[in-house]
Design brief:
Length: 255
């Protein structure tokens, strides 16, 4: 007697419309990225102006998954004029994200207003919005096509903010490799629907036999000719970070 084996097809295979397929791809990418608990890392930021001149910043990053989203700290170690500047971010699945900036020279914590989140983060081509962890629930998704990107077979999809006032971008075009669902490239479009910036991801490493993280993220601003590169190192996962380390009161005591 013949034995019939029924396989459960992935949601992406079952998806019919471009919107359904885009949503399924985004959900699978989020599933593979999430579940790490917490991690710490070091980060070198290289800023390049239109003439190619560079300046650098050194910082530490601490990130913690929570029920409502992600909490993170960016702690600057150099240069001297911004040392001990700290950005605290709380991303939320439904409501607007919260961000606070501790300024050591003034010894005060300043809340980043929603309308200022598209502003430059410490003079870089990354905005405060870009620094916040991407949250699945805040966007709609649409699959556009499949194509090669940086030598890899990729899904290409569009994501748009559900609340247009919650983002400085009207839309983003995202390339994810089909094998691991890692982000390879993102194009960001401004409120005039013009291409503003492109972010590329390279030098991925695998941690805990599951979590892929890039070692090199390069943001190019097509309208200014400037760029900013993030070089990640010293990743450590599940270090035991506590939620009470990620609040406004702790910012003045972090070293």
């Amino acid at each position: 007697m013949a034995v019939v084996v029924i396989l459960a097809w992935p949601a992406i295979c079952r998806a019919q419309t471009p919107e359904q397929k885009g949503q399924a791809i985004a959900e699978e990418a989020d599933r593979r990225y999430s579940g790490y608990g917490d991690f710490t890392s070091r980060l070198r930021m290289v800023l390049r102006n239109k003439q190619g001149q560079t300046s650098e910043r050194e910082l530490r990053v601490r990130t913690l998954e929570v029920e409502d989203g992600v909490k993170s700290l960016c702690i600057f170690d150099s240069p001297a004029d911004i040392k001990q500047t700290i950005l605290l971010t709380h991303t939320h699945k439904k409501q607007q994200d919260d961000q606070w900036l501790y300024l050591p020279a003034l010894k005060r914590v300043r809340r980043i207003a929603a309308q200022n989140k598209s502003g430059s983060f410490v003079g870089s081509e990354f905005s405060y919005e870009d620094i916040a962890t991407h949250v699945l629930e805040k966007y709609t998704y649409r699959w556009l096509r499949d194509e090669a990107c940086d030598g890899q077979d990729c899904y290409v999809m569009e994501r748009r903010p559900i609340d247009p006032h919650d983002s400085g971008y009207t839309r983003q075009i995202v390339w994810l490799d089909k094998e691991q669902y890692r982000t390879i490239k993102v194009d960001y479009y401004d409120r005039k629907e013009s291409l503003l910036k492109t972010l590329t991801f390279k030098d991925y490493g695998k941690y805990l036999d599951r979590f892929w993280r890039p070692g090199d993220m390069n943001m190019v601003n097509h309208q200014t000719g400037k760029s900013s590169q993030l070089l990640w190192s010293d990743f450590a996962f599940r270090t035991g970070l506590a939620e009470n380390e990620f609040n406004q009161a702790s910012l003045t005591t972090i070293r």
